[in-house]
């Protein structure tokens, strides 16, 4: 896999290079885009920094493993999700997706990830799952470091240092594997070769069959040959995988019945609005455990759910409008568009599970492998959002469920950061690619 590398931040004389005349002036004045910000905040590639990156990965992942082995922080039980995966693994062995299971809400490709620990039969299911998750994590780290090899390593550092902000939760969810598919797809799309574009599309197609959202990695592909090659490969791969799974397993589309019944999860932006209203005495609803998550039940919940779906449709329409209006593509545009799309869909969703932050950190890391990205401030907003997500779950989850002042405050701050990141990403993507350049 190869990537196109722009010139280094400084030439051999040490002077800053001139800025491109096509770059909007509104963005060049941002302190986040300055050479001072870049060089002061991140380290350049070399043997020493790469060793430091490897050491940081090893130490942070050892800490995550220690937390997972104890699994007693906050409400504890983070690893129970892997027990559910193991239960589904037994059903896959009998040739069916979980029939009538309200907690099975994933596309059929997710079954491949959940069955994957079977390739390590000498380990327990839990041990094999964590091992494969760490392997996927290491692959993401290496891919990001390689993409940065001629420039700066801040993309890899965002991933290596950002993931532990979610404590041990990433090791007990299959979202690291899903994020790896999206990261590798985006990095492949940035190469020149047709085969790389097809590979990127195929990886995005597999990712879409695993957890839907990686299909958004293709929203920013340049018009023309790259889009045709990537989108065709994604569609062919996804359909082939779906047909294969439907041939060998029954109930492959059963997850659709469960998704349609979801309500407002307490950790979503809509849930935070209801929690705030309930704390103020303006809403009489309650929390119930439904469809594998805590959701709000009461007046206006259904209306808010429909509003959330409407805003998701509007977000998708905005992305299509952006694609039609965009006039300038840089090597970072596919990365920036993917992060913006996933942020918009996350912010408008009825459900925001803590593992969604894994997706956002991975996409932000890809953006920061390129000097052309306009998403640096967005990436920085996601770091405290990830830390607050860990406070919300598992550390203070009881407070969030019962809607105490502390629990509501944590969710307001976390979701406020996500909303700000989504709006900022949309603005910067539009301004950098679709706004006419002033002569």
TrEMBL record:
GO terms assigned for molecular function: hexosyltransferase activity
One family name in Pfam for this protein: GT87
TM helices/strands, residue ranges: 122-144, 156-176, 196-219, 231-249, 304-322, 353-371, 378-396, 408-426
Comp. bias intervals (Polar residues): 1-11, 22-32
Subcellular localization(s) per the UniProt record: Cell membrane
Protein keywords: Cell membrane, Membrane, Transferase, Transmembrane, Transmembrane helix
GO cellular component: plasma membrane
Transcription regulation as UniProt keyword: no
Descriptive protein name: DUF2029 domain-containing protein
Lineage: Bacteria, Bacillati, Actinomycetota, Actinomycetes, Kitasatosporales
């Amino acid at each position: 896999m190869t990537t196109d590398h722009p010139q280094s931040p400084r030439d051999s004389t040490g002077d800053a290079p001139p800025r491109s005349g096509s770059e909007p002036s509104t963005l060049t004045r941002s302190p986040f885009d300055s050479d001072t910000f870049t060089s002061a905040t991140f380290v350049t590639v070399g043997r020493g920094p790469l060793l430091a990156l490897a050491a940081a990965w090893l130490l942070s992942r050892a800490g995550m493993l220690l937390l997972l082995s104890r699994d007693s922080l906050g409400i504890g039980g983070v690893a129970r999700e892997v027990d559910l995966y193991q239960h589904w693994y037994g059903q896959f062995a009998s040739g069916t997706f979980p029939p009538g299971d309200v907690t099975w809400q994933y596309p059929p490709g997710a079954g491949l990830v959940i069955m994957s620990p079977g390739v390590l039969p000498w380990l327990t299911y839990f041990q094999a799952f964590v091992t494969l998750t760490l392997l996927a994590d290491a692959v993401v780290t290496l891919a990001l470091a390689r993409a940065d090899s001629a420039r700066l390593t801040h993309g890899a550092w965002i991933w290596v240092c950002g993931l532990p902000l979610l404590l041990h939760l990433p090791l007990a969810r299959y979202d690291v594997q899903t994020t790896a598919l999206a990261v590798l797809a985006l990095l492949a799309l940035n190469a020149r070769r047709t085969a790389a574009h097809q590979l990127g599309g195929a990886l995005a197609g597999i990712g879409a069959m695993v957890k839907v959202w990686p299909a958004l990695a293709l929203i920013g592909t340049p018009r023309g040959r790259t889009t045709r090659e990537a989108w065709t490969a994604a569609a062919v791969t996804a359909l082939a995988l779906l047909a294969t799974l439907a041939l060998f397993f029954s109930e492959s589309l059963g997850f659709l019945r469960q998704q349609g019944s979801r309500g407002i999860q307490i950790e979503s932006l809509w849930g935070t609005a209801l929690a705030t209203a309930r704390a103020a005495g303006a809403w009489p609803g309650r929390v119930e455990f439904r469809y594998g998550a805590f959701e709000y039940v009461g007046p206006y919940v259904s209306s808010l759910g429909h509003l959330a779906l409407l805003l998701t449709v509007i977000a998708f329409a905005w992305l299509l409008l952006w694609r039609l209006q965009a006039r300038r593509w840089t090597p970072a545009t596919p990365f920036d568009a993917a992060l913006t799309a996933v942020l918009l869909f996350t912010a408008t969703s009825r459900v925001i599970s803590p593992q969604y932050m894994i997706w956002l950190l991975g996409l932000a890391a890809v953006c920061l492998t390129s000097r052309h990205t306009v998403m640096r401030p967005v990436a920085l907003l996601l770091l405290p959002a990830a830390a607050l997500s860990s406070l919300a779950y598992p550390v203070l989850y009881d407070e969030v469920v019962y809607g105490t002042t502390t629990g509501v405050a944590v969710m307001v701050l976390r979701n406020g950061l996500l909303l700000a990141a989504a709006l900022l990403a949309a603005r910067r993507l539009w301004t950098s690619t679709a706004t006419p350049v002033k002569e």
